[in-house]
Design a protein that fits this description.
Blueprint: E1 8-13, H1 18-29, E2 34-40, H2 45-55, E3 59-62, H3 65-73, E4 81-84, H4 85-93, E5 100-103, H5 111-119, E6 123-126, H6 129-146, E7 149-152, H7 155-163, E8 172-179, H8 189-192, H9 197-200, H10 210-218, H11 220-233, E9 240-244, E10 250-256, E11 261-265, H12 271-279, H13 293-296, H14 310-318, H15 323-341, H16 347-359, H17 369-390
Parallel strand pairs: 1-2, 1-5, 2-3, 3-4, 5-6, 6-7, 8-9
Antiparallel strand pairs: 8-10, 10-11
The structure holds NADP nicotinamide-adenine-dinucleotide phosphate.
């Protein structure tokens, strides 16, 4: 990682969200080591204003012009550029003082800023998995060209990143991501149909943003993570797998060809992988207490019931299909989850609609941002249309 001086300069994209706030908490703890230079948010002006007062960044961005104008009208005790919109987030990502960019905008809106970050050749701490799902080949191509380091922030991928550190990929039989199973893993498939937004948001282990929490309830989150892992670690589909592990202590496993199985364990707290993305290749004292396995007692593992969680099965298919399949799967899911959160559709409509839409999508290889976003937009329109017809 290139550094401007002894201090590592960090830009946080999605600073007002769950990953963003955790990142800032770590930075506050290691003030001697990190300085925030850029913040990008969506609509939460109040939280962003508070963050500006605390961290005094050089550049900030909001989703809407009116919110950026509101910030401009306020009195600030340090000079700062205030910008807005998708270009604003890209500007924060590409800011020349950055040493590390944490990409934690949710959904496909994180793609352009993530690409802008990768093009700088700096370190990218990647939380925004949807970018990798829709544009993994393009992100890899741009990072090879620029020399950017992509360090995963997702806990499972951070685990794999650590486990594969000294291993030869040819000697790896399988990489297994674990899934908590979400709130409905024990239910009968018939009981899933009409689960409410409130119960789907009630995740047993992780406290996260709403979109990823619903994805965890359908297990689509694990599907997105499988596709993300394929691109991050250059793994063929047959070397990727999933196990349900309700305790969420083991985040990933790597089976070597000699029969050894390596595992990464840590507390169920995103501060651990975020901190590693900031400090790698070094490690700093954690803000959290040690993991006491004698208190955890049992570590259980179960096979996934794909019939109950059909979106995970679709994601497995996506691993060996053309890029348009993953783009459509991601886009349709995002639109359907949004409709479910607005209570426009039932829980089971999420996968019913998404599967219909993805199966109707023409399959082709795509590797430029314009075509990726075109397929994304077109898929969303078809998803909304199907949802409208159902209601
Ligand atoms: N949370 C976790 O534990 C976790 C774990 C692994 C991976 N991830 C991944 O990390 C990403 C963020 O997740 P999260 O849970 O932190 O989500 P979140 O709490 O919903 O936060 C999302 C952030 O993105 C911002 N945002 C949303 N739309 C935007 C737009 N159009 N332009 C600019 N900013 C926008 C939001 O701003 P406002 O709030 O200001 O509107 C917020 O700062 C997701 O891709 C998720 O899959 C999260």
């Amino acid at each position: 990682m290139r550094k401007t001086d002894d201090i590592t300069h960090v830009a946080v994209l999605g600073s007002t969200g769950s990953i963003g706030q955790n990142t800032l908490e770590i930075i506050s703890h290691f003030k001697d080591r990190f300085k925030v230079v850029g913040l990008s948010a969506g609509k939460n002006t109040k939280r962003l204003s508070h963050q500006i007062k605390t961290y005094k960044p050089d550049i900030v961005s909001l989703r809407e012009k009116k919110d950026a104008d509101e910030l401009k009208d306020m009195k600030w005790d340090h000079p700062m550029e205030i910008t807005w919109g998708p270009e604003g987030a890209e500007k924060v990502a590409g800011f020349d003082k950055n040493d590390v960019i944490i990409s934690a905008i949710t959904g496909i809106n994180g793609l352009r800023p993530t690409l802008a970050a990768v093009k700088t050749g700096k370190r990218l701490g990647l939380a925004n998995k949807e970018s990798m799902v829709a544009a993994g080949a393009l992100i890899n191509q741009e990072s090879s060209r620029s020399g950017a380091e992509v360090i995963p922030v997702d806990s499972e991928h951070s685990g794999v990143f650590q486990l594969l550190h000294k291993e030869n990929l040819r000697e790896v039989n399988k990489v297994i991501l674990t899934a908590s199973g979400g709130p409905f893993f024990q239910l009968d498939p018939k009981e899933l149909e009409n689960q409410s937004v409130e119960s789907a948001l009630n995740h047993p282990r992780w406290s996260m943003g709403k979109k990823i929490t619903i994805d965890s309830a359908t297990l689509m989150n694990k599907g997105l993570e499988l596709i993300e892992a394929k691109w991050l670690f250059h793994l063929p589909p047959e070397k990727l797998g999933v196990l349900i592990h309700p305790q969420s202590i083991v985040h990933s496993l790597v089976e070597m060809r000699d029969g050894s199985v390596l595992a990464q364990l840590s507390r169920t707290d995103m501060k651990i992988p975020i901190q590693l993305a900031l400090t790698y290749p070094h490690r700093r004292e954690s803000l959290l207490p040690s993991l006491d396995l004698s208190k955890v007692k049992a570590l259980d593992f179960f096979e996934v019931d794909f019939k109950k969680f059909p979106l995970l099965e679709m994601a497995l298919k996506a691993l060996s299909r053309e890029q348009s399949f993953s783009i459509a799967l991601n886009a349709s899911n995002e639109a359907a989850v949004h409709s479910f959160l607005k209570k426009d559709i039932r829980f089971s409509d999420i996968w019913e609609v998404v599967i219909e839409v993805v199966e109707e999508t023409e399959e082709r290889s795509v590797n430029n941002i314009e075509d990726i976003l075109k397929i994304d937009q077109e898929t969303r329109k078809r998803t909304w249309e199907k949802i409208r017809k159902r209601n």
